[in-house]
Specification:
alpha/beta; 426 residues; single chain; two-stranded antiparallel ribbon; Rossmann fold
């Protein structure tokens, strides 16, 4: 090879132009060096079935016989292939060019494309969030400012000895998985009985009169109305519903029924419907919305569904929302293709999350032919009015809230064909 240029200039010229590989086919990436071709052909035949290492032996006579007979057997092999119209071919030698690999690459590319379309990192939303789960970071999350956090820690180390340095948990960068463990003190209620006794004793021993003492509130807020500071007590609605049912059953045997006649139209409380069905982790929010639509069609047909509205403005349900959101859960940025992770109750505890889901469910219900009403705030009045409006035919209102029963008793018309109220399907 060192004297190839002088002894075989034509071969040297081809080597210089890149013709130093052997191509057994015209496919891409099929050029192989001579030693690899020898391994794939000659050595493969020698070590495979019918070769020297499988029964023929490796003696000098057998090696000579096998080597000299290869050209003749190859001619016989080609003649038999032509006679039978069959061709012996090998499998694809480059994995990246196989049809299966190309299909797999195309499938992976489509998955990446779909994921980027549903979890676009370059959106106008400036909030810090997980683009896969849609989890929106809280205000105290500063993991994106890790360099600043690190510099602040280093500044606190300046001028201190090794033993004098202590790393505190609060100084660490907070990630999306961080959850504040700080508990805010609830408004404490002063025991009115104990406070009254103390004032009574004080009025007997000092210059204060009982009349002056009783002219002031004995509690920071009326405990009969508030369960905590700025949070009203929750009404005992089931007790009211039980009293109404008991009174009505005494007046008429048909007021409270065990079963309802065949209904022509249903009106559903959307809030109750949202909490009715269980969710499966890994399903997309679009699939969850379709599940609600299928459930509605299967049990109630093309019903009228009325949803609450969760706008930014004030609402009569603000106190209820405040009570439900005492344990603050994260906000989720999602669309129809985002996969659901976490817990359903945590997701629905935030009004903005619930409103996004209602929008998806509304779209799916309308595709199924259902009538959907989206209230601006509390939907109880809209639900009852929709039921009363449809009462020219046998109508059943599906809901769990006692408020619906009270409003229905007030707004129901005497000349309706039939209007019933019951809870959801169990």
């Amino acid at each position: 090879m060192c004297q190839l240029e002088a002894r075989h200039p034509d071969v040297y010229d081809k080597f210089s132009r890149g013709f130093h590989v052997i191509r057994r086919s015209n496919q891409c990436w099929a050029g192989l060096s001579s030693d690899l071709v020898i391994e794939q052909t000659l050595m493969r035949s020698l070590k495979s079935s019918g070769g020297l290492t499988h029964g023929s032996g490796m003696t000098e006579e057998m090696r000579a016989l096998w080597t000299m007979s290869i050209p003749i057997t190859s001619e016989y092999n080609n003649a038999m292939q032509e006679f039978n119209d069959l061709t012996y071919t090998t499998s694809e030698q480059h994995r990246e060019s196989t049809e299966a690999r190309m299909k797999r690459n195309h499938s992976d590319l489509e998955k990446i494309k779909e994921k980027l379309s549903t979890c676009m990192p370059f959106s106008p939303d400036p909030s810090l969030r997980n683009i896969i789960t849609g989890l929106v970071a809280k205000e105290d999350v500063n993991v994106h400012e890790y360099e600043t956090v690190g510099n602040e820690i280093i500044e606190k180390m300046v001028g201190k000895t090794v033993l004098g340095i202590s790393f505190k948990r609060k100084d660490r960068a907070k990630t999306l998985a961080h959850e504040s463990t700080i508990k805010f003190a609830q408004g404490r209620t002063i025991d009115p009985a104990l406070l009254f006794q103390r004032f009574l004793v004080l009025s007997k021993t000092r210059d204060l009169s009982l009349e002056d003492v009783m002219s002031y509130e004995l509690s920071p807020f009326p405990t009969a109305l508030f369960e905590a500071k700025e949070i009203f007590r929750k009404a005992d609605k089931p007790q009211l519903a039980h009293a109404v049912a008991e009174y009505s059953s005494k007046k008429s045997k048909e007021a409270v029924m065990d079963s309802i006649p065949l209904t022509e139209h249903y009106v559903l409380d959307g809030g109750s419907l949202v909490h009715r069905l269980p969710w499966k982790k890994g399903d997309s929010y679009g699939a969850i919305a379709r599940m609600y639509a299928d459930f509605t069609i299967r049990h109630y047909g093309k019903a009228t569904v009325v949803f609450d509205g969760f706008s930014e403005g004030p609402s009569i349900k603000d106190n209820t929302h405040q009570r439900r959101e005492q344990n603050t859960r994260p906000i989720i940025s999602f669309n129809a293709k985002t996969e659901f992770v976490g817990r359903k109750d945590d997701f629905l505890s935030r009004s903005c999350n619930k409103q996004g889901l209602i929008d998806l469910v509304t779209e799916e219900l309308q595709k199924k032919g259902c009538t959907v009403i989206n209230a601006l705030g509390d939907a109880d009045m809209n639900i009852v009015k929709a039921a009363v409006k449809a009462s020219h035919q046998l109508t059943t209102l599906i809901g769990e809230d006692t408020d619906l029963l009270i409003l229905l008793l007030y707004y129901a018309e005497a000349n309706n064909r039939g209007l019933y109220f019951r809870s959801s399907v169990r």
